[in-house]
Specification:
heterodimer; A: alpha+beta; OB fold (Dihydrolipoamide Acetyltransferase, E2P); Ribosomal Protein S8, Chain: A, domain 1; five-stranded mixed beta barrel; four-stranded antiparallel sheet; 16 strands; B: alpha+beta; Ribosomal Protein S5, domain 2; five-stranded mixed sheet; 9 strands; 29% strand
């Protein structure tokens, strides 16, 4: 019989032997070597029947279609803008996807998005060679004015958003800040200075404890404690 | 004729090891590996776009290592900063030692930069550097099939000893032979094997046998350091 050597939800590291025998199957973040299933990516283990996989705890953002991200303009071209999306690859925002307005050829593109502007974007296409196309047309997609940007690890974004946005709503309500969380790990916040600082603290706390359970309660207690 | 080690260690006993990850917050991954008085810091940035473009590989990402000793790190005679013949060589062999465990095929046209700095050295610095770099790469969340563990083994006065320190290396006018070895513990593949000095074929084989269990312990120390970051 096969033997499982680690527990569900445990942090596992590359080279660690997860299971012996042929009863378990490798998936994302694991591989088979002879009789053993071994981890090849730092993450949290999840066991789904016979399948062993890991959810990453670190690493750069990997662009996926339909993700909402925050990007920073670093180049203006003839045909659009290039944005840094904190991934291994930069993103391209073509003219036609930049605005609902008609942008005439040859007009001054920095009127729409200037260098160093932060923009909320949606990823529309990722090619096999990782060329990333984004759009700024759509609900909630816009240039960000004022507020502040912080960086968190993109692997921890799902915890910051929470189930159906529960965690981020909690922070929004407690601090009265506007918050936009990009899947790429850039977070924009705007509110009163004290509350912005508090929201940043809460987000950093989630980032540090992302692999732990019972986080919503802990964050809620933290926010209550700080506001007193 | 039995050789007594100046540090009173057993022949197969490495120096005391300290390992931790996440020491450089701004990097994508980082680690510190200290063995005796040799200490290495490693920081990983990337995968990120690679320029100039002609260096890009459209099939997979590339790894770029840079090894450097800090000016005050040696015996007190200032190590001149910047690339030297020695540091270029060690950067190259570190890269070759680490690339077999890494899978960068998901990141074509990119580079992963590894910076290894040594604040303090007392022999075995390339091994410490490789150990630190391997932890930093894992900390950066890259796909790697195992850690890379490295240590030196040597022949001092006809005795095989593991993890030479500076005193042993410099004994009898640097007569000692020094063999740094890096290995992938799960498959026992050797990814670095250099030799400075004269060792017979028989003894080289013995030397490799001698370090296998030590390298397994080092790999475990590296993994524990990664776990400690999250289980605190």
């Amino acid at each position: 019989m096969g033997e499982l050597l680690a527990k569900e939800k445990e942090v596992v590291v590359p080279g660690q032997v997860l299971a012996k025998g042929m009863d378990f199957l490798p998936s994302h973040g694991t591989y088979r070597l002879g009789e053993e299933v071994i981890v090849n990516r730092l993450g949290v283990l999840s066991v789904e029947g016979k399948v062993l996989k890991t959810t990453p705890l670190a690493g750069r953002y990997i662009p996926k279609n339909d993700d909402i991200v925050i990007g920073k303009i670093f180049d203006i071209l003839m045909s659009g803008w290039r944005l840094d999306i904190e991934s291994a690859y930069s993103a391209m925002l073509p003219l036609k996807d930049a605005s609902f307005d008609y942008i005439a050829k040859g007009s001054d593109l920095s009127k729409y998005f200037a260098l160093d502007d932060y923009v909320v974007l949606k990823i529309v296409n990722v090619t096999s060679q990782n060329l990333v196309d984004v759009s700024a047309k759509g609900q909630g997609l816009r240039k960000l004015r004022g507020g502040r940007i912080i960086r968190v690890n993109s692997a921890k974004v799902p915890r910051i958003i929470g189930k159906k946005g529960s965690m981020v709503s909690l922070i929004k309500e407690a601090t009265d800040c506007k918050i936009v969380v990009g899947q790429n790990g850039l977070v924009w916040l705007q509110g009163s200075p004290e509350m912005e600082v508090l929201a940043v603290k809460a987000i950093k706390m989630i980032e540090d404890l992302a692999h732990k359970q019972g986080l919503t309660q802990q964050v809620s207690d933290f926010l209550k404690g700080e506001k007193k | 004729m039995t050789f007594k080690r100046p540090s009173k260690r057993k022949n197969d006993e490495p120096r005391k090891i300290e390992a931790e990850v996440g020491v450089i917050k701004k990097a994508d991954g980082s680690a510190r590996f200290k063995i005796g008085d040799t200490e290495a810091l490693a920081a990983v940035y990337g995968p990120r776009e690679l320029h100039p473009r002609f260096l890009q590989d459209p099939k997979k990402g590339i790894l770029r290592c840079s090894y450097s000793m800090m000016p005050f790190s040696g015996d007190g005679s200032r190590v001149r900063p910047g690339p030297s013949r020695r540091s270029k060589e060690i950067s190259l062999v570190s890269e070759k030692a680490l690339i077999p465990v890494l899978d960068l095929s998901d990141y074509p046209n990119t580079v992963v930069d590894v910076f290894i700095e040594l604040p303090q050295t007392d022999a075995g610095s390339r091994c410490a550097g490789i150990c630190a770099a391997s932890m930093a790469l894992a900390d950066a969340g890259l796909v790697m099939k195992d850690m890379v563990a490295a240590i030196s083994v040597g022949m001092v006065r006809d005795t095989l000893v593991v993890d030479l320190d500076g005193d042993e290396e410099h004994l009898d006018d640097n007569e000692a032979a020094d063999i740094p070895i890096a290995m992938i513990p799960s498959t026992k593949e050797i990814t670095l094997l250099q030799m400075d000095g004269i060792v017979s074929k028989k003894n080289l084989k013995k030397a490799i046998e001698l370090v296998i269990p030590v390298l397994a312990d080092i790999a475990q120390a590296q993994r524990n350091a990664l776990l400690n970051r999250y289980n605190r």
